[in-house]
């Protein structure tokens, strides 16, 4: 998602007086980089946690270690917990998270291109599973765009009042 596509997200957050934080694994800070390229984002962006190592997902983001042991880092519930964790730890209105396998090899028995993204906001947490293809660089870029698209959709739903609390995409 080019910077110009991040501008409506930042504008919507500024208009609402709401804040955002990111929790990233496979994207390694790419989502935060894209957002912070937008002028004026400092009014809404609280911070980012790049928790690449599985143990950091537990210690920095509050993901249940037992869940990580049973299901691994590449899991939709892990993505949801990461989004909720960064939202809580950064004191933000919205939290977004990415986790998945960018390649070149499978991880935890999960295929290259499997990505889970999540958005936690005032009405609850939603997630989306993506099956992406391409190079490592392409998968990471598509994952970043995917979580920002989900955030954009959730901001739009929140604006129109159509979302039910905790509704899953």
Description:
- The structure is a single chain.
- The protein is of the alpha/beta class and 169 residues long.
- The chain has one domain (3-159): Maf protein.
- It is built from 6 helices and 5 strands.
- The chain has a 5-stranded mixed β-sheet, with helices on both faces.
Total count of helical runs of at least 4 residues = 6
Strand order of the largest sheet: 2-1-3-4-5
Mean pLDDT: 93
CATH class: Alpha Beta
Q: Regions with pLDDT < 50 over 5+ consecutive residues?
A: 163-169
Decide which structural class fits the backbone. alpha/beta
Total beta strand runs = 5
CATH fold-level name: Maf protein
Q: Helix and strand layout, with pairings?
A:
Layout: H1 3-16, E1 20-24, H2 30-36, E2 45-50, H3 54-59, H4 65-71, H5 76-90, E3 94-100, E4 114-121, E5 124-131, H6 136-160
Parallel strand pairs: 1-2, 1-3
Antiparallel strand pairs: 3-4, 4-5
